[in-house]
Amino acid sequence: MGRRMEAPSSPASLVVVLLLGSLLLQARADDPYRFYTWNVTFGDIYPLGVKQEGILINGQFPGPQIDAVTNDNIIVNVFNNLPVPFLLSWQGIQQRRSSWQDGVYGTNCPIPPGGNFTYNMQFKDQIGSYYYFPSLLFHKAAGGYGAIRVLSRPRIPVPFDPPAGDFTILAGDWFKLNHTDLKGILDSGNDLPFPDGLLINGQGWNGNRFTVDQGKTYRFRVSNVGIATSVNIRIQGHSMLLVEVEGSHTMQSTYTSIDVHLGQSYSFLVTADQPPADYSIVVSTRFTTPVLTTAAILHYSSSNGAASVPPPPAPTVEIDFSLNQARSIRWNLTASGPRPNPQGSYHYGLVNTTRTIRLANSRATINGKLRYAVNGISFVPADTPLKVADFYSIPGVFTLGSMPDNPTGGGAYLQTSVMAANMRDYVEVVFENAENLVQSWHIDGYAFWVVGMDGGQWTPASRQGYNLRDAIARYTLQVYPQSWTAIYMPLDNVGMWNVRSESWARQYLGQQFYLRVYSPANSWRDENPIPKNALLCGRASGRRTRPL
Q: Where does the UniProt annotation place the signal sequence (predicted)?
């Protein structure tokens, strides 16, 4: 368990701490602040023509978009007007030195009904396309999500000309059953039914129209905010020039369609170079039977009607198409990221790894009910958020090291699993998928390099095929059926971080754990202190946050 950051014991120490705190605050004060007040409510929505109970933010579904610039300070005051606890999490936002703001139950006490909590985040050294979502219970199936767009600072070069417009597409599967019914199905030990449809920005078929002028180029940011299926996106009569994946500028390759797996985000440029008309933006599920499809409209401002060209064909059902496409996505080594220096100035492939972690997902039956597991352990939430328990050194909440580095091969069991790790370790993580479904994994607090993926069983010899030069850095990865995916990740962000399946039923039923990255320095240079406004619950109820 971690040590609590104690108050200084001498006047000299107090001066040092206050000076350090002042410098940290000054660094943030130099960057702009953006303030948001969000009221979270239930409301009637009809995304597939059936009345449902949806989660609205300021009356909107999807919720308001956050537009920011690298290093902006984002202050979001969330008022929970639901009759149940609530949290928001921020997909891909790294929360540097501050897992206190991550918004998952392992780090934050829920916002109680009628209560509020103010998230105080800095989008430190990040650019790109992200989104937020509700993380508790099964709220993600009720909406409550929205886009986050982080632009480069004005003096930082971007490897493409400014687009004429910047559009957001939040795509994903949807169920006609209310989120409470879906949760009830899982709680009873059963799996979810097949989704009923797909949504684009909360709307069904042709519910969205994106207007463009002929001859101009536009940026589209696409995130898969669904809970069950991968999707593919394509645009009738138009090609897509990929430019960014989850905060990394890519080599600019042209695609006719792009697979977007659960939790992932891509952005591409589309040039309106066709005769003026209305063209279909088509989104369909991947690797499913049946295939669900929806569409939006790419509307030329001088359009006289529907385009006469054939609709864009769906990609093949073969895994190889998707695997080869994923391998083709490369890091742009010469482009600037959030800083002026080129992305490729960090030679990730020349750093020796200090530890190899193998993570195998599995489906299991425990106590007569369906569960999912990682290395044979099916995660169960504790009565106190793990980060809070760690800070106050509360015993009995979790056992450090309860998530092993390798698959155990034994039967699955329930536990609040936490993996121990040290600040500045450089780890190789291999995700192994022996099942027949595509897996999608996310790691909070980090971006990592996807150095390899292939079919079959991973062995040390698999490293010979790793891309150690220009693999893409991202925050969500896919693992194909009967396959593996390997990443390199520098552990440079102290905190308690959620490692989870992006298939929300699997996550809910145990396919997740927490990675506790620890620094013995126990310094504000490595990790922010507990926020003064931190909500305390469980075994931490009644304690104080901090005196300063």
A: 1-29
Tokens 């589309």: give the residue.
270
Q: Give me the sign of the Cα torsion angle 226, 381, 412, 365.
A: negative
Residues 6+ apart with CB under 8 A from 19: none
Q: Tell me which CATH homologous superfamily contains domain 165-331.
A: Cupredoxins -  blue copper proteins (2.60.40.420)
**33-151 and 165-331 share one CATH topology?**
yes
Phi-psi region of 401 (alpha: psi -120 to 50; beta: other; left: phi over 0): left
Q: How many Å apart are CA 66 and CA 353, to the nearest integer?
A: 36
Q: List the one residue out of 326, 220, 216, 225 whose CA is nearest residue 266.
A: 220
The domain 348-528 is placed in CATH, from the list 3.50.50.60, 2.60.40.420, 1.20.1070.10, 3.40.920.10, at 2.60.40.420
Tens-place pLDDT, residues 323-369: 999 999 999 999 999 999 999 999 999 999 999 999 999 999 999 99
User: SS3 of 349, please?
Assistant: helix
pLDDT of residue 16: 39
| Architecture (CATH level 2) of domain 33-151 | Sandwich (2.60)
Structure confidence at residue 1 (pLDDT): 42
pLDDT in tens, 265-299: 999 999 999 999 999 999 999 999 999 999 999 99
Six token digits for residue 544: 């104080």
The DSSP line for 248-307 is: EEBP--EES-EEE-TT-EEEEEEE--S-SSEEEEEEEESS-SS--EEEEEEEETT--SB-
H or E stretch covering 485: strand 483-490
Model confidence band, residue 524 (pLDDT cutoffs 50, 70, 90): confident
Angle at alpha carbon of residue 44, lines to 40 and 50, rounded to 5°: 140
Q: Alpha-carbon distance 443 to 529, whole Å?
A: 22
Unique residue bearing structure tokens 């905010």: 225
Nearest one of 234, 271, 269 to 253, comparing CA atoms: 269
d(CA 146, CA 500): 20
Domain residue spans of the chain: 33-151, 165-331, 348-528
pLDDT of residue 5: 39
Q: What is the pLDDT of residue 312?
A: 86
